[in-house]
């Protein structure tokens, strides 16, 4: 068993999941993978369970009924990891927008350099996004700028979903008190880590938009992020925000 677990939420990722897993398991450093599948009707879970025979001690699946949201998928994965001996727990998308090779860089930023949270950052050194329309790049960049301004976090990519947590961070944060289930979940987790004064570092990565399958982005997700940030900040000022 590895000391590092990659949590990969899936919903209809049959076109990507096998290729992603083979990429991760071919890396020089060993990572275990937990796929959290929300009842994908396209057979994603079936593919994963078939591959578990090839990697019986490294590949695991957590099946849930229905689409319950990105945040709850990660929290389920975090709790699964904390019941075991993993020291480093990762978030990663299934669609190859995150390069599997960068897992090693995020791992080293925590394991070797002593940080508690490493973030695969699209905006640390400019705008490193491939295949997004300019409107979406601008929206994402402005959202991170807005979050940084409101919260005071010195993080350029506040909405990043490619991260590595040391175990102690997830043990300290009250996971059952996380409020948001969409992309605001990413902001809230970073904000709670920041309020707890853990060491946070951004590792520049290149984000490449999916070429297979469909994006899960929606207007509701964006709205949750915008208004949720204000709520989090106000509660933290008045000491009513549970971290």
From TrEMBL:
The keyword Zinc does not apply. One of its GO terms (cellular component) is membrane. Signal peptide: none annotated. Residues 6-172 form the Glycosyltransferase 2-like domain. GO terms for biological process: glycolipid biosynthetic process. GO terms for molecular function: dolichyl-phosphate beta-D-mannosyltransferase activity. The keyword Transferase applies. Keywords: Glycosyltransferase, Transferase. It comes from the Bacteria. Gene3D superfamilies: Spore Coat Polysaccharide Biosynthesis Protein SpsA, Chain A. Belongs to the glycosyltransferase 2 family. This is Dolichyl-phosphate beta-D-mannosyltransferase. It comes from Aureitalea marina.
